[in-house]
Amino acid sequence: MSPFSRPTIPRNSLTLWRWMIFEPELLENYEKTLTKQQLIISLLKSYSWVVLLFFILYIPFSLALWAWDLPNVYPTYFSESFLDLWGKAESIERLQLLALRPFINLSPAQINSAWLFSILKNSVVGGLLMTLFSIGEHAGHILQRFISALFKEGVLWFLLTFIFSLFGNYVGGLAFGLAGGLAGGLAFGLAGGLAVGLAGGLAGGLAVGLAGGLAVGLAVGLAVGLAVGLAVGLAVGLAVGLAGGLAGGLAGGLAVGLAFGLAVGLAFGLAVGLAGGLAGGLAGGLAFIISFYIFFPRIPFFLYYLLFARQQVTLTDNPYIHDAVIFFPLPAMDIQLLTVAQKNPILGTEFIDFLLTSRPLQRRLVAQLTHTTTTGYWLKKDFPETTFNIPKIPTEQANYQPSDNWLQSLEQLEKQLITYKQETSISLKLLHLKRFKQLFDEFSAQTARESRDWNHYYNEALSLLNQRIAQQLANDELEAQKAEPIARNCYREGTPLLLDSENDKTIFMQRNDIKETLAYTINTSATLPLFLLQGQRRVGKTSLLNFLPKMLGSGFTLIKIDCQDGNFNAGVVAIFQDLYQQAVTQLKLSDFPEWHPSKNWVEAFNKLKSALVAASEIRGTKIILALDEYESLHKKLKKQPEQADELLSAMRAFSQAQDKVIFLFSGAALLSELYQPNWAQFFVQTKRLSVDYFDKKTSIKLITEPVPLQYTEEATDLLFEQTQGHPALLQRACKELVDLANKTNRREMNRNDVEMVLQELVNERENYPIQCFWTDFCTEHTCHQTVFQLLAGEQPDDIIVIDKLALHGFIIETTTGWQLRCPLFKQWLLKHGKVIYIELQRCDAKIES
Length: 849
Known about the structure:
The protein is mainly alpha-helical. It has five domains: 32-295, no CATH class; 401-483, no CATH class; 510-690, P-loop containing nucleotide triphosphate hydrolases (Rossmann fold, 3-Layer(aba) Sandwich); 696-763, Helicase, Ruva Protein, domain 3 (Orthogonal Bundle), CATH 1.10.8.60; 768-848, no CATH class. 67% of the residues lie in helices and 5% in strands. The protein contains 40 helices and nine strands. Strand 8 and strand 9 form a beta hairpin. Helix 21 (363-380) runs parallel beside helix 24 (459-483) and helix 34 packs parallel to helix 36 (751-763). The longest helix is centred in the first third of the chain and has 41 residues, at 245-285. Residues 101-288 have low confidence and may be disordered.
């Protein structure tokens, strides 16, 4: 069970009072589950605590009057008849006498000589108070007589007459209070009036609760009781203090404060609750200014929390857990919580979720905790297993929001770290780590420029991370020296080359023919065609797209999306939104509005094209929209053919009507191979840019220039002959040769070394470039039997399949007929082709059955 879970049902009636003060939301939610009958029962049970509070506060002070024999100590303040009875009564009888008779009475002369009483009597407020006193007196006497008639003696008679006599004894209480001393009367009168005024107000809230609900009844009763108790207790206590001293104030001020607080709190809470319901009850209860300014901001609790902050607090035991209405910040306590949250970010995240859902007043603390728990997660794991998660700050806390530059820098940091961890070559890992260190230093500098409200939370974490990165750099450099004594292995396999990688720049072979064709066509054509970057899988199409901005120069801006990326699963409209966001980021168009496309594909595209044309004009650049692996887009278009036709038609019209935005699709399929929708029908003016194998000159350059190995001519010729310049196979073979040189501690590579490495590639069943051809391409185009014929030295008779294989560059025609273009393909297929084909057939049979 989570330490932050909260109950939905109160454990007892006392819990309701605690909820009213500390958890109003829980009380409101609980009330919604109750029937009218259950509501009444809950209220009645709750007010049992009011009775207890009444006796706890009133009886001790009455006993003090009896124990100290105050009528004999101050006889001038009591009537002669009362003193006569008091003198004749035994000890226990005197307690009964206190309940039966007005024990605090002033003579008319004393009343007239009391200046404060005169002010009260002759003022508007005083008139109201005197009227209420009169009502209380008559009600008290009537009730006393009624009770006396029913019960002549006994405990019940004693208790009832004792309670109801409070309403009839206001005059004596006021007079006796006037005779008390200032200090004692003011203190005890205020305390007594407040305490029992609270009790009376809560009792009055019962009527409000029946009309306005559980929360309303409790809240109005509490507010009215506090206000009445403060007002009456202060006035009477002041009067007591002016004349009577400690004893008079203790008895008189308390008694009158109790009686008046009970009477007025009950009447006022009932009237307001019945008349106004929730709004009226709350408005009436908070009308008393003194009570409002003391208890609405909860000053007493706040002072207690300030003292509590000196103690050790935890995420699961602190005032925020128990109190939902903390208005003011608690700096000392918050610092402790921030420290604990950084050390335990998982529990800190749970605490943040609790504050977000249950403590709406603590949004600032949530923002602070989010930053510290973020650094806690960064430091939780040793580098390089660090995860640079992004802090999510509540939107209303603008001062704690990181800038876009900070967020982008953090995102780059995370991507570079992933690249580093995925790399297997130690030399490449070292290069990636150095790049990461550079980005980390830039991120640290950006953090220092952020708001001072929150950037200091990251200082310690960045310092520790910097030390860990430096240590990892030293470890990797030492490992690289041991693992690669001859040459650093810069070759890559399986992943596209990146423009911002110094290593990848050394092994990227520019395809100048494609660059020149693309640039010339864009700059000279009145109407732009759709450009299709087409070639086999793993021949470098994505790498070419990554390096295209550098190849074309500053007059072009490439905006690329990978249609096989996980984010692409959101749908066609999500592609347009992603392209828009990339354009805004790359061209730094911060003033562009946030764009939310409609669900209709054409409407979404029209919004995108308008934004891109405007961006092109503002920045003075031509924008190339590149969709890599565009066949995945085709699969989505097939699901809604009507929208697909409309979208492709709109894209064609836009492409032909302007020269600022260029479409560049990249993939293995030709447009003529995609049906429903028929791409070739819409894009008649398509310019195909074939991405093929490297020629011999480029292949030899890739083999010899990036590393200081010494190849014999026979070795390089054999490499090209067997791979035919296939980029992925050539990269893989070169990588294995560098590893071999480092293992054998020699720079010279000969034919035998090349033969050994090539044989390893043939033996490896998971050789992706060849396996992809056999399992994907040949399955899709039904080529297996034709390829088997070619492997057997036969000439196939299926001219459609032959044409398909030749069109995609897998076979070539020689003087002796058709044959596989790459010898390495042939050797691998002879070894693994039959087995894999049988497995594919069995898999298809299971699916059909």
